[in-house]
Every structure is written in structure tokens, then in C-alpha cells.
Amino acid sequence: MKGFANLLERLAFTPARNAKLQILRHYLDETPDPDRGYALAALTGDLKLRTVTPSLLRGLMAERVDDQLLALSYDFVGDLAETIALLWEAETDEDVPLRDAVALLSDTGKAGLPAAISAMLDRLGASERLAFLKLATGNMRVGLSARMARMALAQMGQPEVADIEEIWHGLRAPYQPLFDWIAGGERPEHAAKAPFRPVMLSTPVDLDQLQAFDPAEYMAEWKWDGIRVQAINDDGVRRLYSRTGEDISGSFPDVIEALNFEGAADGELLVRRDDEVAVFGDLQKRLNRKTISKTMLDSHPAGLRVYDLMIWQGQDLRELPFAERRAVLEGADFGSERIDVSPLLDFTTWDDLAALRADPPSTVIEGVMIKRRDSAYVGGRPRGPWFKWKRDPMVVDAVLLYAQRGHGKRSGFYSDFTFGLWDDKDLVPVGKAYFGFTDEELRELDRFVRNNTVDRFGPVRALKPSLVLEVAFEGLNESGRHKSGVAMRFPRISRIRWDKPAAEADHLATLKDMLP
Amino acid sequence: MRADQILHPTDAGLYCPPGDFFIDPVRPVERALITHAHGDHARSGHGSVMATRETLEIMAIRYGEDFTATRQVADGEITVGDTRVSFHPAGHILGSAQIAITPTAGPKIVVSGDYCRRANPVCAPYEPVPCDIFVTEATFGLPVFKHPDPASEMARLLKSMAEFPDRHHLIGAYALGKAQRLIMLAREAGIEGPIAIHGALQRLCDYHIEQGIDLGELIPATAKDVPAQLVIAPPSAFASAWVQRFRDPVIGFASGWMQVRARARQRGVELPLVVSDHVDWPQVTQTIRELAPSEVWITHGTEDGLMRWCELHQIPARPLRLVGYEDEPE
């Protein structure tokens, strides 16, 4: 438990992705089974334990601490589990194995839970108490995705991340066969049905680069602005995976119910009302929910637009050329109105395709996909067979308002920028950007920030609104959480407009007009 | 004489009418008694200053020799007006003291200043001084503050340095006291090579060395390449361009506040080290129990928690709500 507590703390405070991976890999290297497996499952959200409610924890505290002191402490700390971990007066400070904590939280009956939790807290030091309570409340919040956890595993041995993703959903904590495989043993058989299979990804391209290729060798289709998924029905076992192998079936019961076929399809998850594809923001509302209300299912119905077939009626099609898979796809019956096939685009020359791309029939299209007719379905991002030719980013000229210091390689540099647009005579913040500039430009921006600071709030500096940034972004959603009412997707600084006066920056209304 | 006739808060700080002096005044006064040399307690411009020899010397380093018209080293029991005062070690930083005030008639009052009861190699340990009224700080006056053994925090620093051997570890620490203590803790933890220090720490580290505190080999962290993995700097340095000479450093901060995650996150700290020069909750409550004063006065900090504890333990207590003292100054 000491190692696990230390791991959680380090991950929570380490912003850089590579450093997080390194910390996790070191932990997995030096921690024995089965504890490392349980830790891994806790981080990837695959550990199904009893959920301990805040009211149970408050009850435990009420017996031990004066209620005013508890209230003052909670106000100050701001997190119940952390407050309790700090307040608890333990009797000893043992290194309880993580497996014992996991066993306690999976095997204890409801009536015995409060006493069992107190007895465990009595044995632990402060950091371990916090780790245990985070485990018990199911709220890790260390900024590490399941995908990153699998990348750390891949760094430990021979198997590639795609190999691990492929068998992941057939494995259960504490993952002994997985660790044995990574250490050089046998690859675990995936017993589970409907496994995830590595997704084929594309590389970006533009019109100049396309000139080197013969359009006759390629097919093209729209790139829909939803979520790329893998939908599977394997002998009655239905699953919906994101392209990184997260099982998102739970959030999309309507789609799961519609998978009335036998096979594995690659497609785009979209919210669709009749024939109209809804904007990405509508789909986003369906994500990361434990339960979906009936109202939400009715107002935001999800469906699938299929690009490709990996497995169909027992046959693995991945080795076949794309054109042959496409022929099977066009003849396929998915058994539901929620599922349809992504249409092909009719073009002879790249200029034809450019014209189509310039004027798509829906705002929920973010460009075109170009696929070689003879391409096999290969997991990963092979260079060449598939291209994405995204629509040009949208741009606005915004005014730099706030800057915050960066981490790691950008320590000491103001590298996180908040920018705003005019709304009448005020500047309203509309987004934040962390990249898009060169190292030289970063130094210039840093100098600008230091010379134009008008106020400071901790690590943030408020700036004299005088520098215009051209901000490029991929899309725009309505957002109730932002003061401006809109949220940009992938904003970055595409140009620093040293030449442009702040008064000539764009207005919020201009941005809102770009909403799909 | 009633207690509040002997000592009471004013806008300038705690004032003692029978002795006609202020303790740690926040604005210039005729006569000041100063507990320790941290900037918010020890200011320049007073008519006369009485403090420990170390506190006076540190004030002279920081403000120049003319920081006050006259100075007097506090040594033994000294008569000031109609009171006798004495200074006793507080265990906070080098030269830090508690001030005991004994009036000709009335209760004996001890003003603790900032104090700490954990062993600190850079200063004399806190000495309990029996009194009727104990005036305490409450910087960490909530039961969540139980500061761990600094050795375990150093073990975390060492682990991170081993985990990321190619990254400088930049640890923020207040220039007076915390920085030198951190260096000593690092030495005790087994860091033998050079430790780099920011320029702002140089004179104060030199002074500690002159006082016989062996900080080991210190090198300036001013060159383009700093050949030491551990670098100590004052918190303000992290906002300056000075940091830019380090490529991908691990940023840490040594403070009692680091025990609360939200505080550590606010600062953007990657390696929070819980090292404090103040009493934590068990220490402050233990001290009050031990001294068993008839009344407790609380100068500054999170006094609501300590007030409540005194109420639960039926110890008369009152908050002085002194302003001008930072919870852990920068």
C-alpha cells in the first residue's frame, strides 16, 4: 500500500505524460504480483469494488472528531477523502498489501463495511489512508488514462501497445498472465468474446502531396465528426470500443441494442435525428455517463455510420483489399435503422475531390478520407494506404489576456495562453492555447508577457490587452460552462500578429457565427 | 494589573504599556522587541531594537547596518520600563526567540513568536517557558496539519532524484531558515555533493556557515550549466526568467502547506515536500497542555480551529487577529 500511495501521489502531481509513464513503469517493475495488477486495474477503472459513500465516511468521522473541527478542516482541504485521511488518528503505520485492501472492499458485506474501513484506516499512515479512501470511493483522479497505462506496460517488454489492447478486455485483475507474457512468457489466450482489435489510422495529406498519387487507385469518403468506434457482435456478445480500446458500451445502450449482426465493424459514432447528423457537442453529452436517462436517449439518439468491416459472419476480412471489404459492406444487412454505411464520393481527379471537400453537404463533416483500393486493414498508423484530408481550420484574431507558466521543458516560460474576443467594449475570454508556436516565438511571447503584466494571480499573469494572436481551431461547440458560450476544439496559435492593433481583433459575434 | 493592560494588540502590533515597547511591530515604532528575523516580524526603521544577537545580525545583513538607531542584544533578564523581559529559544529559525514579559504585578506573559518543536539543526530547540498567558501562533491551527518526519520527505526527494537522474530538482524554500534547514536535511539524508543555491540565498547561507552550521559545498545556481542535481531557490525565483536555464526540471516546494493537495496544485508543484518550521496541530496542542497557562491568546493563522480546541478543553482563549503577518512569508 505504501508503494501504491506513493504512485498515486506522484501521478497526481506530475503533469508531463512521459514522466507519468516512467513513474508507472517503475512501480510496475518493482512491485510484486498481485498488488501491481490490482494497482493497474484501479488506474484503468477495471477494478470493480464496493462503492463507499461520502455519508458512510462522514459517519465514521463524526464518532472521532468534533463536528466543528471537521467542518473547519473540510473547508480548508476541500476534499472529503483527503480531510479524513489527514484527520484520522491511526494506531500503527503498517505496509498493508494492496491485495488486502482490495479483498476488504470486494468481500465485506454492507453491514460490516464501516467497521472494516475503520479497522483498515487504523493500520495505515496518512498517504496510505488517502490511497485507500480514493480506492474505496472509486475516485482516483491522477490524470492517467487506461491507454497510457497500457503504454507503460508496452514499455516493460516485447508486446506492442496494440497487442496489449487486443487482449486487454479478455483479462481480469490482477493480470498475472499479462505480466508473465510481458516478462517473456506465453501470450495469454483471450477467452473473452468480442475482443477489441487494433484500429487502422490514417496520415494527414494535402493537395500538393496528393499530386504524387494516381486517383484511380484510391476511393474516398467523408470524414464524419463523431467518435471513431469499433462495434462488435460476437456470437451475441456486444461491445462498443473507442479507437484506443476503451469499452464505452455502457454509455450507448441504444447502439448496443442495434448491433443485430455477427461481426466487427469500424465506423463513426454519431448522434442522429432522422436523417440529420447532430453536431459533435450533442454526442459529447452522451459520453462518460454511468447511466443514461430515457430523456437523453430520446433527445440524443446515437447511431453508427460504418466505414469498414473487420470481421463479417465469422470471416476475418482484414487481409482483403479495401475494395473487396467495401463490396461486402455495401451488401451487408445490419438489422437496424440506427446503422448505415458511409457513402463513397464520386471523383476522377484530385481537383474533383478538392471541390467536394470545399463544399460538404453537412457541417458535421470534417474533411475527406482517402483509402487505397488495395489496402489491407492493418492496425496502427501505417504510412500511405489511408490519408485524411481535413477541412481547413477555422481562425479568429484574438487578444492575449492571460498567461501561465508551463511545466517540464517549458518551466519558467509563460507558455499557456488565454485569449479573448471583443464583446462590445469588453474582451471576453474564449479559449486557451498551449502550442502552435516555435521555440523562438515562445521566447518572444515570454518576453512580451513579462513586459506587459498588469496583475498577478498566483502563477497566472493578467496582461495589457495589446497583442493579437491568430488562433486556429478544428471546430466549435456551444458550451454552458464557458462565459463566452462557446468552446473551441484543438485551439492553437497559428500566427502572432505583432503588427495588428488589439482594437482590430475579432468580435465574439464573428466566432458565434461559425457555430455549426 | 490586568493582562490586557500589560499587553494588547494595536495597529502597529502587540504593545506593552508598562514597558512602553512593541513586539514585532509592523510599522516603525520607538522601541521594538523582535522575536525573529523573518521580514514580516522584523522590519527596519525602529528607534531601538532588542533581539537575539543572531536576529540583529541577520537584520543588519538584510536591511543594512542602519536598520535601527540603537540595538541591544537580549541576554538574560532585562528591565524595560516597569517590566522584566527575557528571550528564550523558539526553534523556528536561527536566532528565533520567545519573549517572556514579567510585570511588577500581574500575570507573566510569553509571546512565542513563530515556533517549532521538531529538531532543527540550524537553531536551538524550543524551550518551554512557564507562564500565565501564552501567546501562540496558529499558522497550522487545524487538526489536519500533522507534519511528517522531514526525513521521510527527504526520502521522497531522493527517490525522485533517482527516478529522474537527468533532471535538475529545483526546490523552493524561503531564503531565511527554510533554505538552510533543507540543505541540512539533504545532508543528513546523504546528499554529499555540491548543492546549488540561487543568488538570493548566498549571504544568508554564508552567515549560517559563519555561525558554525556546516552546510557543505554550495555552488551558485547562476551559470548556464549548473553542475548539481539539487537546486534550492526562494519561491519568488520560480516566476523569474532564472528558471529558464534549466531544461525540464522537477519543481518542488518545501512548506507545511504542501500537506494539502489543493495548495500544492495551486502552486504548480510537481514534488511537494512537507517541511515546516512551525508547530503543527499535535505540537501546538501539546504545548498548551504542557504549559497549562490560565489563558491562551492566538496571534495569527487559522485561529478558529485552535479556538475551538481550547473551548473543548475548557481553556480560556482569545484571538488577537493581528494583521500584517503572512502565514508563511515569501
Helix and strand layout, with pairings?
The complex is a heterodimer of chains A (516) and B (330).
Chain A: H1 2-13, H2 17-30, H3 35-44, H4 54-62, H5 67-77, H6 80-87, H7 98-107, H8 113-121, H9 126-137, H10 146-156, H11 161-168, H12 176-182, E1 203-204, H13 207-210, E2 218-224, E3 227-234, E4 237-242, H14 253-258, E5 263-273, E6 276-277, H15 280-284, H16 294-299, E7 302-312, E8 315-316, H17 322-331, E9 339-341, H18 350-358, E10 365-372, E11 386-390, E12 394-405, E13 414-423, E14 426-433, H19 439-451, E15 453-457, E16 460-463, E17 468-473, E18 475-478, E19 486-489, E20 492-497, H20 508-512
Parallel strand pairs in A: 1-11, 7-9
Antiparallel strand pairs in A: 2-10, 3-4, 3-5, 5-6, 5-7, 7-8, 10-11, 12-13, 12-16, 12-17, 13-14, 15-16, 17-20, 18-19
Helix pairs in contact in A: 1-2, 1-9, 2-10, 5-6, 6-9
Chain B: H1 3-6, E1 8-10, E2 13-16, E3 21-23, E4 31-33, E5 46-51, H2 53-63, E6 68-73, E7 78-80, E8 83-89, E9 97-103, E10 109-111, E11 133-138, H3 150-163, E12 169-172, H4 178-188, E13 195-197, H5 202-210, E14 218-220, E15 230-233, E16 250-254, H6 261-266, E17 271-273, H7 281-291, E18 295-301, H8 303-312, E19 317-319
Parallel strand pairs in B: 3-4, 4-5, 5-6, 10-11, 11-18, 12-15, 12-16, 13-14, 13-15, 16-17, 18-19
Antiparallel strand pairs in B: 1-2, 2-3, 7-8, 8-9, 9-10
Description:
- The complex is a heterodimer of chains A (516) and B (330).
- Chain A has 516 residues and is of the alpha+beta class.
- In chain A, strands 3, 4, 5, 6, 7, 8 and 9 form a seven-stranded mixed sheet that branches. In chain A, strands 12, 13, 14, 15, 16, 17 and 20 form a seven-stranded antiparallel sheet that branches.
- The longest helix of chain A is centred in the N-terminal third of the chain and has 14 residues, at 17-30.
- Chain A is globular and about 75 Å long.
- Chain A has helices at residues 2-13, 17-30, 35-44, 54-62, 67-77, 80-87, 98-107, 113-121, 126-137, 146-156, 161-168, 176-182, 207-210, 253-258, 280-284, 294-299, 322-331, 350-358, 439-451, 508-512, and strands at residues 203-204, 218-224, 227-234, 237-242, 263-273, 276-277, 302-312, 315-316, 339-341, 365-372, 386-390, 394-405, 414-423, 426-433, 453-457, 460-463, 468-473, 475-478, 486-489, 492-497.
- Chain A has three domains: 2-137, DNA ligase, ATP-dependent, N-terminal domain (DNA ligase i, domain 1), CATH 1.10.3260; 203-390, 2-Layer Sandwich (D-amino Acid Aminotransferase, Chain A, domain 1), CATH 3.30.470.30; 394-512, OB fold (Dihydrolipoamide Acetyltransferase, E2P), CATH 2.40.50.140.
- Chain A is built from 20 helices and 20 strands.
- Chain A is 35% helix and 24% strand.
- Chain B contains eight helices and 19 strands.
- Chain B folds into two domains: 3-144 and 278-319, Ribonuclease Z/Hydroxyacylglutathione hydrolase-like (Metallo-beta-lactamase, Chain A, 4-Layer Sandwich); 150-273, Rossmann fold (3-Layer(aba) Sandwich), CATH 3.40.50.
- In chain B, 23% of the residues lie in helices and 25% in strands.
- In chain B, the strands form three sheets. Chain B has a seven-stranded mixed sheet, covered by helices on one side. In chain B, strands 1-2-3-4-5-6 form a six-stranded mixed sheet. A six-stranded parallel sheet of chain B has the order 14-13-15-12-16-17, covered by helices on one side.
